[in-house]
């Protein structure tokens, strides 16, 4: 872990105020289309999956659009366990969004008879369009999946999932770890909070983040084993860590998800995992990253079926 250079907004050691956040916002540009790359592709999902708009974000005041937010599900049969899949909590993590879409278009139908599947493909569309971790208020959705959340993206998901009638068996949250975590987002976070930034080595490969309150090691291992056929599993660094955390088993670290307000902590699901692929690796292509996300979802569902769920 190394100390990075200072960020060029604000004064070192002083948290940002409204002026600094406004300065940051002026730098954010629309760089791709939620309509074309997400919504248009979601017109072609597997038969039997219904689209439901669970919220809308009006970001015209930030020079953007009105973003409808959608969930896709195949029903709420009380005789089937319910599994949640979320993508695009951080909009810049492309394969999380595209992996959720790909799953809906391909493998999802194979599991409709066994599970109630609920897929939220792109939780942060403004982040997707600006290739950003934060929302326009310089807030990270993935520390704010809590009651009375100040982040509209997170609050909408919390409200929607609370309305589901069935208990949740599993939640698979699709993410990436990128070089821009160290070059942009961690330095920006430290500057925003008036702290000193430290960077970790970006893991070269796929890894998982389990929940320290319910690590379900066999579940994580089954996912990593399947994904290893598509892309490499990230080795631990010289300190036995991934992203600054000690590994609990090869390719897995654990966080207290509910306490940290992470997306994976929204429900009381017994089986929880967050996928992390590394799209900037010389050993992985964008297509491999998308495929790895789909394989991870499928492996999780196969594990649940094989273990009597």
From TrEMBL:
Domain named Peptidase M14: residues: 30-309
CC cofactor: Zn(2+)
GO MF annotation: an example: metallocarboxypeptidase activity
Family annotation (CDD domains): M14_REP34-like (cd06231)
Keywords: Carboxypeptidase, Hydrolase, Metal-binding, Protease, Zinc
Any one of the GO BP annotations: proteolysis
Domain of life: Bacteria
Pfam family, one: AstE_AspA_cat
Keyword Lipid metabolism set for record: no
Family: Belongs to the peptidase M14 family.
Entry protein name: Zinc carboxypeptidase
Origin species: Arsukibacterium tuosuense
